[in-house]
Amino acid sequence: MSTPVMHGAGNRPLDIAWVRGQFPSLKVEVGGKPAAFLDGPAGTQVPRQVMDAIQNYLTNANANTYGAFATSRRTNEMISAVRGAMADFFNCAAEEVVFGQNMTTITLGLARAMGRELKAGDEIVVTTLDHDANVGPWRALEEKGVVVRQADIREADCTLDLEDLEKKITAKTKIVAIGYASNMVGTINPVAQITKMAHAVGALVFVDAVHYAPHGLLDVLALDCDFLACSPYKFFGPHMGTLYGKKEHLERLKPYKVRPATNVSPECWETGTQVHELIAGIGAAVDYIAELGRWCDPTAKTRREALAAAFRTTVPYERTLLTKLLDGLETLQGIQVFGITDRARFDERCSTISFRIGEHNPTEIATFLADRGIFTWDGNFYALNLSERLGVEQKGGVLRVGLVHYNTAQEVDRLLEALHEFAAK
Fold first, then answer.
1. Fewest CB atoms within 10 Å of the CB: 185, 225, 291, 331?
2. DSSP 3-state of 40
């Protein structure tokens, strides 16, 4: 398992043994066998430095903010430093970074604040492809007369129907809410193209990048989106959410908050006392990815350059695992894979794949795999509109396998062997 595999452009090979050595939980065993964590889309494992950062904060800096004493000052310094880390991760300014409980809570709060500027008859466009955290908060504004329109998909490959989306974006559209990548079928949306469509009619763009963040380099400047949210626990960090917002919007919009809280952005968007120890963990998660990038490309000078180097290696590596998995799945009788399967189009999807085997309930398959130490997810994963649109919601949804860069070809082989065993029952 120590053989280096897959080259990024200009990078050293990815040493999978080094990668796995950073994650203590990968040593967990089930029935005497190492657990295969193929459950990344619901939350990745965390490297040791994230654990150490959380413990170090609680030991040496545990206090609330803006006090006159040492541990409070350390908390302020830590939060400022992590804003800088997330700014590098997003490619934005530090004052455009907001921390929150999770992406869903952040989106609900932002939608409510944006709703202050909307009137009856204004329109918001959402999509069938999205997690409900990027649908429900906008639909909640229907109670004040806002009209929500939903763009459809192309069922054959589970991609967004861009023609339908373009028809639904009109002069009445004020917000377009889209996902960067589908957490069910892995489809990557052309966000920059969609942003241009929205801005052409004066609409703001909110991007749910939760599922994309561990699978590709984020660049909000290149996307030109107005807001983008993601969850550190999906990119090897703790359970929190983060938001990028263009400074002009964060300063103009008025969040709901208590009176004594600051009116200064971005802190005014961070309702109540934050989970400071987990913010420390967010910074360590970003630094882990940067460390991986420097391991792959020692010439990387800045943290942003190191982050780019990391994804130059992990993206093609994950695609090799995805190809291997798909090759094996296609030998299973009764298999139905959802999403893009054309290997030539893998730049339009990430390494998350969902499928059904005949009429078997996905929970039955997930349980069979779990008994063998293989961790997968079943259901709709809150992508309820997509599950209903594909006609699988009433059948238990799908089985989802999510591959990230700490997974191995051997784990894919174990999964395929177990699935063949299940299908032969």
1. 331
2. helix
pTM for the complete prediction? 0.95
Whether 407 and 37 have beta carbons less than 8 Å apart is answered as yes
> Which amino acid does the sequence have at 214?
P
What separation, in Å, do the N-terminal and C-terminal C-alpha atoms of the chain show? Answer: 31
- CA distances 394 to 46, 150, 352, 362, 388, Å, are 34, 21, 22, 12, 8
Cis peptide before 260 (omega within 30 of 0): no
At residue 13, the pLDDT reads 84
Residue given tokens 């398959």 in the structure block: 365
Dihedral angle at the C-alpha atoms of 386, 392, 398, 402, nearest 10 degrees?
-20
Tens-place pLDDT, residues 43-59: 999 999 999 999 999 99
Rounded CA separation 232/359 (Å): 35
Please list, in sequence order, all residues whose beta carbon lies within 8 angstroms of the beta carbon of residue 86, skipping any fewer than 6 positions away: 94, 97, 242, 244, 282, 283, 286
Q: Residue 158: which of 125, 182, 180 has the closest Cα?
A: 182
